[in-house]
Write a structure and sequence with these properties.
The chain is of the alpha+beta class. It folds into three domains: 3-119, PAS domain (Beta-Lactamase), CATH 3.30.450; 121-201, Helix Hairpins; 205-364, Histidine kinase-like ATPase, C-terminal domain (Heat Shock Protein 90, 2-Layer Sandwich). 45% of the residues lie in helices and 29% in strands. The protein contains eleven helices and twelve strands. The chain has helices at residues 3-18, 37-43, 47-50, 55-58, 63-75, 121-167, 174-199, 211-225, 248-265, 308-311, 329-339, and strands at residues 22-27, 32-35, 79-89, 92-104, 110-119, 206-209, 230-236, 244-247, 269-286, 290-301, 343-349, 353-361. Strands 2-1-5-4-3 form a five-stranded antiparallel beta sheet, with helices on both faces. It is elongated, with a radius of gyration of 28 Å. Bound molecules: adenosine-5'-triphosphate and magnesium ion. Adenosine-5'-triphosphate binds next to helix 9 and helix 11.
Length: 364
Amino acid sequence: MSENEHSLKGYFAHVIDSVGDGVIVLDRQSKITFLNPAAEEITGISRRLAVGSKFIEFFRGEDVLLEMVAKTSESGMTISDHENVVLKKGPNVTPVNATTSPLLLANGECIGIVLVLRDISNIRELEDAVRQADRLSTLGTLAAGLAHEIKNPLGGIKGAAQLLERELPDGSELRDYTSIMLKEVGRVNRIVEELLSLTTPRKLELSHVDIHESIGDIITLQKRASVTKNIAFVQDFDLSIPPILADEALITQLFLNLIKNGVEAITDSGQIRVSTRVLSDYSMTKKGERFSRMVVIDVTDDGPGIPKEMIENLFTPFFTTKSKGTGLGLAICHKIVNEHRGIIRVDSEPGKGTAFTVMLPLVR
Ligand SMILES: Nc1ncnc2c1ncn2[C@@H]1O[C@H](COP(=O)(O)OP(=O)(O)OP(=O)(O)O)[C@@H](O)[C@H]1O
Ligand SMILES: [Mg+2]
């Protein structure tokens, strides 16, 4: 092999090693001859162990994949599967998009198979988020209609209670009743307003928001508000994250709701940790042309956690387990995150605690 050919070979080896998709090459006997780092990552199989072994030894049970390989080697056709391939790596499963193609020489001779695996777990998460948003928007339309209908009679009750109060002599015991009426009407009104804000579209007031500053302020206030409990607030910030383009008031409301839920979940003592980081391998297209990285903010508490069967309902308006809760907090969080083209999700283990993860595009 000439010097030139040799360095070209090294160059292509680097190219394939750098591809983000998993690439596995098989010879004509279906022995693995090559596996790039992304394939090691997706399958959990090391190159050292796999090379030289039969494909089936490592992929027993992955029926769809085995069938694709068999078909391509029989027919010489390229086969893709976007839906059905799920790789099991220990206890975890990774949904992948798989393609098998014949490995052809210039003269058309087939000397093996190239298998390309693309990890689509992020896409699956996005699909879940879309389904969730759909469900909420149906509910939202209903709630908005209801809220609108309630506002008018509520105004009537408030006016009548105020008139009644004016007619009562000073010191009348009945004034206690009118003041309860007015207070409760005020409460219903606030809920209706919140509900309407949840369901009507609005324009974001964008500015450069330092999320660490916003979260720091919330923590300062929550520390003061929760002095009766023994809560340690931990800030684990990546201070290199620049300000993001967002609506500051809404971002504050978002993290206030999440941190408040954490505080409310802890009965006597515990810890609330807020950490920030940048997710670099997660890019979302904005209007199809621009890519942006995501800022990830985790709000974690070591409270009682959330039972599995409740998780699905958390973001639904009015879902609450608290006697004084409205159940709108997380629904509002969900809306705010959506408006910022982000993602919110929850991980919870009963008895251990809860983590809410918010991902926001790092738009500057
Ligand atoms: N960190 C958490 N730990 C345990 N349970 C939680 C946590 N966050 C939310 N929940 C559960 O989710 C429910 C819904 O939360 P959400 O913030 O939407 O409403 P709420 O807190 O009950 O009322 P509001 O926020 O309107 O005061 C809560 O009632 C609680 O059961
Ligand atoms: Mg709440």
